[in-house]
Amino acid sequence: MPASKKAVVDIKKLSLTFQTADGPVYALSDVDLTIEEGDFVSFIGPSGCGKTTLLRVIADLEQATGGEISINGVTPHEAREKRAYGYVFQAPALLPWRSIERNVTLPLEIMEISKEERVKRAQEALKLVELNGFEKKFPWQLSGGMQQRASIARALSFDADLLLMDEPFGALDEIVRDHLNEQLLKLWARTNKTVAFVTHSIPEAVYLSSKIVVMSPRPGRIIDVIETDFPKDRTLDIRETPEFLEIAHRVREGLRAGHSNDE
Amino acid sequence: MPASKKAVVDIKKLSLTFQTADGPVYALSDVDLTIEEGDFVSFIGPSGCGKTTLLRVIADLEQATGGEISINGVTPHEAREKRAYGYVFQAPALLPWRSIERNVTLPLEIMEISKEERVKRAQEALKLVELNGFEKKFPWQLSGGMQQRASIARALSFDADLLLMDEPFGALDEIVRDHLNEQLLKLWARTNKTVAFVTHSIPEAVYLSSKIVVMSPRPGRIIDVIETDFPKDRTLDIRETPEFLEIAHRVREGLRAGHSNDE
Amino acid sequence: MTWTKLDKFCLVAAIAALLALIFPLAGVDGDTGKQVAFVGDIPGLAAAMALSVIVGSAFTWLGARSITAGMIILAVAVFGCWQALSVLYDHGVAGFAGLGFWLFILSLWAFVWRGIDVIANYHSLDRTKQHLANFVVPVAFGVWLLFVWEVVVSGFGVPQVLLPPPSMIGERFVNSTDILAADFHQTFVKAVLSGYVMGCGSAFIVAIAVDRVPFLKRGLLPLGNMVSALPIIGVAPIMVMWFGFDWQSKAAVIVIMTFFPMLVNTVTGLNAAGKLEKDLMATYASGYWSTLFRLRLPAAMPFVFNALKINSTLALIGAIVAEFFGTPIVGMGFRISTEVGRMNIDMVWAEIALAALAGTAFYGAVAYIERKATSWHPSFRVRRH
Amino acid sequence: ADEVTLQLKWVTQAQFAGYYVALDKGFYEEADLDVTINPGGPDVAPPQVIAGGGADVIIDWMPSALASREKGVPLVNIAQPFAKSGMMLTCLKETGIESPEDFPGRTLGVWFFGNEYPFLSWMSKLGIPTDGGDNGVTVLKQGFNVDPLLQKQADCVSTMTYNEYWQVIDAGLSPDDLKVFKYEDQGVATLEDGLYVLEDNLEDPAFVDKMARFVDASMKGWMWAKENPEDAAMIVLDNDMTGAQTEKHQVRMMKEIAKLLGDSAVLDEAAYQRTVDSLLSGGSDPVITKEPEGAWTHAVTDKM
Amino acid sequence: MTGSVRGPSTWTRMMSGQTGPVCVVLIALLVLWYVGAVFMNAPTQIDRYNRADQTWTTGQLIEDTLAQDRPILPAPHQVAVEMYHTIFAIKITSKRSLVYHSWVTLSSTLLGFGIGTLLGVLLAVGIVHVMTLEKSLMPWVISSQTIPILAIAPMIIVVLGAIGIKGLVPKAVISTYLCFFPVTISMVKGLRSPQVIQLDLMRTYNASKWQTFWQLRLPSAMPYLFASLKVAIAISLVGAIVGELPTGAQAGLGARLLAGSYYGQTIQIWSALLTAAFVAAILVVIVGWCERRVLVRMGVKS
Ligand SMILES: Nc1ncnc2c1ncn2[C@@H]1O[C@H](COP(=O)(O)OP(=O)(O)OP(=O)(O)O)[C@@H](O)[C@H]1O
Ligand SMILES: Nc1ncnc2c1ncn2[C@@H]1O[C@H](COP(=O)(O)OP(=O)(O)OP(=O)(O)O)[C@@H](O)[C@H]1O
Ligand SMILES: Cc1ncc(C[n+]2csc(CCO)c2C)c(N)n1
Ligand SMILES: [Mg+2]
Ligand SMILES: [Mg+2]
């Protein structure tokens, strides 16, 4: 790893325990991780292992109970105040009383960006996820997959340098998913954004990432970090390469090991 | 196809149109399909193409607006009254005021099965989906994937000959998913149940099915029916066979054709 | 330290207390033409004011965030309140309170608010401590309101026949327990409870019947909404005319008042079960009653409890009002309307206090049962924002 | 002109015709007064209103006024236009009540809200407990009308000669069906409808003068009303904002009221003393506990 | 129309809507009312016959019970005639016009409703945003409603009168007191109704409290607000009527009710009561109409 690269997310011995009525839930324990500028990091791990929780800690939506974390050298709280990142939630979280376009412009409105600019950027983002033509529709008039795409457009619209995406493509069929994977890769290659990406799909993780983080079941720990060296402008074809299959195999093994740990 | 086999689901020229405020929505059109006893039929197709709707018609939760359909030779309505099938919905649909165990025993209670028997069967079903130990928890205390598994256990608990499953494994990670795939296959091989299964995952469809139905975007039509002849006791290894890859390819092509039709 | 970080409430408290030391404590007695009292003559009050200045300025800079700080502030406030009362009654300021006195009350207000604020934001994993804090906050707030009432009424010399001070009401309350008990028995035990049970019970049963017959649902509910908008004042004399003077007519008024909220809520609740859940029951070919008991009634429970809570306050009010239109000579409403005419306003307020206590306890009981019975409902889970 | 606010004890009706006539016929204006008449209602306590500063002078019954005086509202009677009491207890003949001796065991309707004092003194004079026991009477708090009698929920109800009695008659009963006990006849009459002001105000000669003009003009109104009952009733009707009163009822009421009026507004000391004695004799629970002092004055009527 | 009827008949269409069933239920109620009137008025009527030593037939009895001057339960047509006379057959400026009285009541209702709604919303905003307010104030907001305001309404009128506030305002104060409560309770619920994920979304934008309020909390609370406004407007009418009782002879539906019961004129009571109910219904319908307008603008599924 060249030391020159800037660390965007720097996590040291992070742990998080939820206090619940039934006693504590250990969601994350002893997580060490550095995400560098321009990285595309995928998180993969069994359901309930703490992927979402980790992303939420990075986004200052959850407070760690131990360890240290800094985003661009400042605390997550300060980073949030600087609007340092865009977040795509596991569920679409669209506001039902706003049209698709106005949902996409919501963050821009809050950041007090001028009207024309807002509309322009929304157009671009919607085009990227192939939702142009649906600007004036309301969320309930769209299928679940389309809603999820709208929420991706919303996160892209304000061009943050760090993208946090929590299973953004979970509700989509394979074809659309492939297409969006390609779009996301293109965007990444073009803009040098840093992406943290949660997924359940091993091929997707391998295809998209520059770094794959494999997590173990609760309490979430990192059991493997796999670096890939496909070029940034990779295409779908790489999925057939032995290199790809090998990495996929390693991820699968890691996951399996975590699972057997569990039981 | 040997004519001797009994047709469990027999659909002829089925179509379904929703009347909505914005005009009619053509969800299904001209669907012809026979599902025979012991078949494992997967439905695959783009989001919003009518897969769920078709399953709902079979389950008598939706009335077709044209064509004919019979289940075991009787109407869907009669079949439902005979409790001919178990249904796993796309969402978990657990009752929040019942513990996991009591959610699983719900259908058994309705069918007036004795208490011990109920508890015994619930135990088995929960074990199958690896949720033993969570009997006394309430739904909101479980992660999304666990809830989905509980709902699968509920459908399995009462041993119907026909299983209708609508994307049951959508919210699960690959390992759990593989595991449940295996369990489902075993169950199918052992009991000669008939299964209708909706999925977005091509490998899953190919791996599980004896018949894959590829559907086109709205109005949902069947554009390809692919029969596989893997043995019933297949293992995960078959995924590497050329035969498997070839079928997967054919499904993908079908889907892609449907998509381009669309745009 | 910047200005914005200063504790503004403590600052207000300190400044107001300081000014209170300077401005005249009380006005001039109209008859004698003499100043009523000076701060300098009352060491207790002077001490309390000085203490307020010191503690206020100290916490202005220190910031009052810890629970100990809150306790200290509240203790100072309690001492101040005690001194203020003593000035009013022992030094004859009642009726003549001046600017200095009111400034001191303002200072106390700032203290009390800051103290309550600290305790309200207290979080503890120890359940008993948390419960204690959650209990102290509203009680302290209520006591403060009573204090303000007392001070304002006495300070301005409001005639007792208009509004008596709480101390007088409390005294009357304690001295008239036998009358209050008899009234409570007549109004609450006889009329309210029976009317409540009959009204809610019958509405619940009718709701289930209405739900079975969609025709009734469409025909009855819009009318039901209209009837619940009927002013009961009009209904009460009619009920007295029909059902006589005793508790039966009050129960009838309560039945009318509680019927429609319960009906409307239960019917809504019976439709609250999600489509998916209904489909699920359909796949089991579950019968009407089975679905009713296993799905629809449990799903309706939050709505039913909502109505039970609304009705718990409505019932008491209904009974009291109905008693204005004719009663035997016992009962809370009877007492209120009679004692106003006799200028025993303190007794009136003692009855009102009893009504508020009974109503709150009734509401609290229903809310407690709700919490136990529908603990699965999302609104009872921990809120994080 | 001097402003005067008068608080009535009850709703607008011929019971207060004199004041409305004086207003309508300009008698107040002639006396250089600008008078506002506030009607009362079932829950308006005139002593409370005057204590709160909502009126300069109120109309009240003497028992209630004296009781309020003990409670700390220093009311003083300045004039007493009504010389006789109009209260009575009206019973159904069919119940068999012939005399007060028949009361024990019966159910009687009584007005409360400060109007119960005459009844309570009467009962204590008779020695009949009012707690509902076997040898006592069961008391009901009677509502706004005479329904309890008509529907036989009570054996007797309180009525005024000028008002509720006629409602009973209007409901279809004839005087022969009824047995009435007038408080006047029973020797327990107390003074009704007097004018009361706050004691402090009387120290101000200007106020006394104003009141003198007010009482004088009011009495003019009363005399006019007595002479012209029909016209007086119409004036009352004009002032009734609810539009609920009927001419027939008000004319009849005016005629009955005329029988209660005295010749002048001057309080008769003997009548006052009778009222006080009756109230003091209330047994264990008298309406007033001690002989009131300064509860009346002739200062105003003397200046007329 | 000839030939086959296409689609459902007018009858079934009417009955599957709301108007049909409502009419049927109304007719049933009317019948019940007549029967009730006969039965409740019969004893006094028979009494009257007996007193007059008159013989009577059942038919005559029924006829007379439905035509009494002061019935215990007036017959619907008696009320209807009275309402016709006092609403349509009389100048609306007359003191006998129910339109006039309704207007008097309505003006204080609307004033009280306005203030009450504002107060209710403000309290809710405070409670949702300030933890201290929630913990200290909320229990008292609930307790405040267990005080029988109806019983102390006269004192409120007197006290306010004592400090020189008279006329419309005291009545509106009582309306306010009654109607702020449902608004506060539902608005607290409504302002808290955004899902956690939506609040998190606003957090990721570092939206200020006010931005979150305007963009998220307030729109989410709209359905709750309107549900409570329907209750509030009806209850504020009740408050205005209650406020009119102690001021006895002054105008308004409450004064009509009181005068009616003072003179045992049941017909007048019932017509005032029904008028009040109609006014309430119209107010609720107006609120419902506003609700639909707002919700449509918010793109909610119809
Ligand atoms: N607010 C909370 N209170 C208590 N426990 C929680 C809370 N949020 C999450 N958890 C628990 O923490 C663990 C990690 O949850 P998290 O949502 O991060 O899982 P995940 O890896 O995102 O799972 P999935 O793939 O299903 O989304 C889970 O076991 C969950 O039950
Ligand atoms: N009740 C309804 N009213 C109107 N349109 C409906 C209704 N239910 C479904 N549809 C429409 O019918 C079409 C088919 O929906 P369906 O739910 O069957 O899709 P699906 O294939 O299951 O999609 P997914 O993979 O997203 O679950 C969709 O376009 C949907 O919008
Ligand atoms: C609640 C109530 N209180 C008193 C009366 C009786 N009343 C009618 S006129 C009148 C005299 C007022 O000067 C009185 C006392 C009533 N009908 N209802
Ligand atoms: Mg997650
Ligand atoms: Mg589907």
TrEMBL record, chains A, B:
Keyword ATP-binding included in the entry's annotation: yes
Alphabetical list of CDD domains matching this protein: ABC_NrtD_SsuB_transporters
Oxidoreductase is among the record's keywords: no
A Pfam family it matches: ABC_tran
GO molecular function list: ATP binding; ATP hydrolysis activity
Domain of life: Bacteria
Keywords (A to Z) from UniProt: ATP-binding, Nucleotide-binding, Transport
InterPro entries the record matches: AAA+_ATPase, ABC_transporter-like_ATP-bd, ABC_transporter-like_CS, ABC_transporter_ATP-bind, P-loop_NTPase
Domain ABC transporter: 11-242
Matches recorded under SUPFAM superfamilies: P-loop containing nucleoside triphosphate hydrolases
Family of the protein in this entry: Belongs to the ABC transporter superfamily.
Listed name of the protein: Sulfonate ABC transporter ATP-binding protein
From TrEMBL, chain C:
Annotated InterPro entries: MetI-like (IPR000515), MetI-like_sf (IPR035906)
Keywords: Cell membrane, Membrane, Transmembrane, Transmembrane helix, Transport
Main location: membrane
Membrane topology label: Multi-pass membrane protein
Protein's recorded name: ABC transporter permease
Keyword Heme applies: no
Membrane spanning residue stretches: 46-64, 71-89, 95-112, 132-158, 188-210, 222-245, 251-274, 314-336, 348-369
Keyword Transmembrane among UniProt keywords: yes
Organism listed in the record: Thalassospira indica
Pfam families: BPD_transp_1
Phylogenetic lineage: Bacteria, Pseudomonadati, Pseudomonadota, Alphaproteobacteria, Rhodospirillales
Domain spans labelled ABC transmembrane type-1: 204-373
Subcellular localization, as worded in the UniProt entry: Cell membrane
TrEMBL record, chain E:
The protein's name in its UniProt record: ABC transporter permease
Predominant location category: membrane
Family: Belongs to the binding-protein-dependent transport system permease family.
Pfam families: BPD_transp_1
ABC transmembrane type-1 domain: residues covered: 98-291
Keyword annotations: Cell membrane, Membrane, Transmembrane, Transmembrane helix, Transport
Membrane spanning stretches: 21-40, 103-128, 140-163, 224-247, 267-289
Subcellular localization, as worded in the UniProt entry: Cell membrane
Domain of life: Bacteria
Keyword Flavoprotein: no
Membrane topology summary: Multi-pass membrane protein
